[in-house]
Amino acid sequence: MENIKVSTSGMDVSNGRFRLYVAEKLARMRCGHVFKAFYATTHYQIIGCALAFMLFACSQKKQETAGDARREIPEILQNHSEKASFAKLTGGNAEWIALFNGRDLFGWYTYTKKYGKNNDAENQFLVKDGALHFDGEPMGYIYTTGSYRDYYLKIVFRWGEKKYPPREDRPRDSGVMYHFPDTAKNALWPVSVECQIQEGDCGDYWLVGGTTADSPNKGVREGSQGRFIRSANFENPAPEWNTIEVICYDDKSEHYVNGHLVNQAYNLSVTEGRILLQLEASEIFYKTVDLLPLR
């Protein structure tokens, strides 16, 4: 193994040029050679401090990343009647998946009825101040590139100010649609189960594209779609933030609004698929979209 020496002869260690010289030498050294270099210079303390700082920074970053991956199990799951069957929650740690990374649409497709898949011609699906920002007239959605089943989903949203036809004089509307099968085609209302996000109706079920289910809550039929009415309204008024939580397991699901169970269904005809966030002629912001696998 070759010997690597760092010579400081004739250099003023307080000079910026010296610090650049040391940095260049470090960059060219293999990790195994660094400690030998310490003893080849009369100023090894400077190099040692720099290396120690870099190692400390790296270890802190790893700890922060690991901490994010082991966030606490939500209280709703801690007290859930099926908790014992949620195998991925054993040990007290929760391995979260951030479906939205806070920066861009990585991991998502876009779709509008007007332009089709992955053609956001009017820039309706953007990221603004760390949140997803949906705005514009053509209706559509974004949906995950991956499929999921047996999970807890947490979404934080708030309404914007703008509304477009045909909703100018109607409540603002959006929705979280889940269990959209990989084999199903994109459509304005694709095969899926929807947790309604609409002013005054957050938590309602909509059975879309021919899906079916049963529920202890009141059910109605509206056109070709079935609907189960939430038990109560716990939505915060605009522009406050609201939290939607959806739990899916087996052929069952549950809808929570700001910590309150407002709806549930069983015998779902679809139990796995992609997750969609809708744009329905109403400006809306989605701050976080986090998923926790249960099995």
Shape: globular
Overall strand count: 19
Rg over C-alpha atoms, rounded to the nearest angstrom: 26 Å
| Range of strand content | 35-45%
> Strand order, biggest sheet?
5-4-8-18-10-11-12-14-13
Low-confidence stretches: 1-16, 18-23, 29-44, 55-67
Query: Helical element count?
Result: 4
In short:
By secondary structure, the protein is of the alpha+beta class.
Write the layout of secondary structure elements.
Blueprint: H1 16-28, H2 31-39, H3 44-69, E1 70-71, H4 75-78, E2 94-95, E3 97-98, E4 108-112, E5 116-117, E6 125-128, E7 131-134, E8 140-144, E9 151-163, E10 173-180, E11 192-198, E12 205-208, E13 219-222, E14 225-228, E15 242-249, E16 252-257, E17 260-265, E18 274-279, E19 282-293
Antiparallel strand pairs: 1-2, 3-19, 4-5, 4-8, 6-7, 7-19, 8-18, 9-15, 9-19, 10-11, 10-18, 11-12, 12-14, 13-14, 15-16, 16-17
Explain this structure to me?
- By secondary structure, the chain is α+β, with helices and mostly antiparallel strands.
- Helices cover 18% and strands 35% of the residues.
- It has four helices and 19 strands.
- The protein has helices at residues 16-28, 31-39, 44-69, 75-78; strands spanning 70-71, 94-95, 97-98, 108-112, 116-117, 125-128, 131-134, 140-144, 151-163, 173-180, 192-198, 205-208, 219-222, 225-228, 242-249, 252-257, 260-265, 274-279, 282-293.
- The strands form three sheets. The chain has a nine-stranded antiparallel sheet, with no helix packed on it.
- It is globular and about 45 Å long.
- It starts with 15 loop residues before the first helix and ends with a strand.
- Mean pLDDT is 84; it is low at 1-16, 18-23, 29-44 and 55-67.
